[in-house]
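$ fold --in a.seq
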Amino acid sequence: MDIRVPQAETFGIPMNQQTAFSTPKGEFKERIKKRQLKMVEKYGAMLKQVLEPGEEVQLAMRGCSPMSILEQLTTGWIVYLMKRCTLVVTNKRILHFPSKTNFAPKHSVAQIRYGDVESIKPSALGGRKLTIKYKNGKKETFLYVNEGRKFKSILPNLRLRGEETSLFRQRHHLCPKCTAPLEPAVYTCWKCGLEFRTMKKAMLLSIFLPGGGYFYTGHPFLGMGDAIGEVLLLFFVIFSLINVLFGTADPINNLFIVIVFGALLFIEKLITIYHARHYVKEYIPVDTHFQPVRTM
């Protein structure tokens, strides 16, 4: 059955509609078409910038970016909102777009070249978890993937072997302005000069400004909660310290309060720094109003 629709309906993005708009058994469904187009629409401009000649979209998926166990423990359930992402499967690679809580783009993009992949294993129950092993030995897991069953059905058709690999041999970020591969831990594009939020500034703001690390990395709600918590802890530390130095009633008890709340404040700062360091690795541009330039 021919299910092709005009490219204008796919926002000018080349899509393999036979694959994208069908069930795992290959049956076309209008609801699947609408769902796929809804996911792709938000990333239309970025996809037009990043897609290479001859590259076409096979499937769009939503999920959660890879995260450490410590991230999950120190953030709680909200981490699954903070780490939302959109994955676009093409005939050449998987494009990873870190997303806001409503799945809107963050002007950040990474790629997983099939030549860099040793294996991709969807979980047995519905494929809601994708574990990717790279040729450099590293593993990453994407959680809560909403199109896992469909991805599992097209996985045998993806060319995971035989292609030339990138220099990185794992998932790596691209410059959203010029699409050049970004150097790890370097927060300026070597090709077009686009600047990204830096690790150093994220750490300094985390230390000296309550909630500063979260605000800097684009997480205002976490920043507000963290700022309130830090200010309260700092108040108790300062108030108890004043009582220790100038008060006359129970200085030992006040010293104990200073130590306890000071330790809690220190731990809070460490957690904020840890989170900010991870969020900075998404390579979010300082100025998101740049003009895309194709230089590749």
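$ fold --in b.seq
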Amino acid sequence: MVAALIAVVVFGLPLAVAVRQVYVDDERRELTRIAEQAASAVSADAVRGRDPVELPTAERDTAVGVYTPAGVRTAGQGPPRADAATGRALRGSVAEAATGGDLVVAVPVRDGERVVGVVRAAAPARVALVRAAWTWAAMAGLAALAMGAAALVARRQSGRLARPLVALATAARTLGDGDFTVRAPRSGVPEIDTAAAALDDTAGRLDGLLARERAFSANASHQLRTPLTGLRLILEAASGGGEAELRQAATRAIEAADRLERTIDELLALSRSGSASTRPLDVDGVLTDVRDTWVGQLGASGRALRTVHDPELPEARASGAAVRQILAVLVDNATVHGRGTVAVRARDAGDALAFDVEDEGPGPDPDADLFARHPAGNGHGLGLPLARALAEAEGGRLVLSRGARFTLVLPESHPTPR
């Protein structure tokens, strides 16, 4: 509305002044025509008053008079004595002036090269002003129509902008209240839609972050149980021993605490990482960690742990932390639900690297949904679903291949072509 008003004022005022000047100039041209017509019909004798003067018929408000070289009116209408415009005309040129609220045009009457008189035509200036006023009224009406149209457009545009902004603010408040599923509607306005897309991305990231934090809490509670149990067994075994046993137990407890700290760090790293690793997997290091973590706990219950790998293994690019956590889940599952020796083997599976974890028990029910997440304390709980999720995040898969054997398959990495 302000822009429309400024446009009307900026263009309307100069145009109004120009319109007034046009009508003034038009009136002066008409007075000039009347005066020149009278001057051509007036003779020198008529100027001197010797012959009758026949002046042309003019409009009611127009006064036409004839003046002698001495400045005395001898015929027609006008001031008795010559005014300034008439005086200039007596010097031989057409004169125009605005005097006493009148527009005046004076034209010299010539007899050869000699000026023998002047014809003066005058009309009130208000005549031109009245004509201009009618035009100004029409311009004002058009300006009012333009402002009305601008008001309609402004109302429509303000609603078009306000509605999506209100919706965007509502979505932002909903997001602030903790509903990360909120999505801002699109309006068709590029700038507002860009802000809405940014809000949606923020909501998605916050939702993912919260989901990862919740998953970390659930996974940490499951994955930390085993190291804590091992640490407890070490301390309980050393509680009734002598000084040497206590020193040895303290060393093993420190090692268990280090593994526990590393498990926490790995779980945090995995919960914050959303992409697979690009570094080659250290198979020997992973198997060594599995052996160091589980051999004592299995030995305390009279069971053995065996770790082996084929001489030649394909190279796989995967996170060592993720693979260690997957194998920890599988070995823990074999410890709790299986019996006999637990074997962990790394082997060549064609175009993939495979880790087999099995025990000597009969294995789970093949019809059971082992990888569905169940409440804690119900069946296999959080471990196997967590292990499968970690495997898929690394581009691999985790399956129950047969009996009590679980197999983690990681695709072989190939050199990137240059």
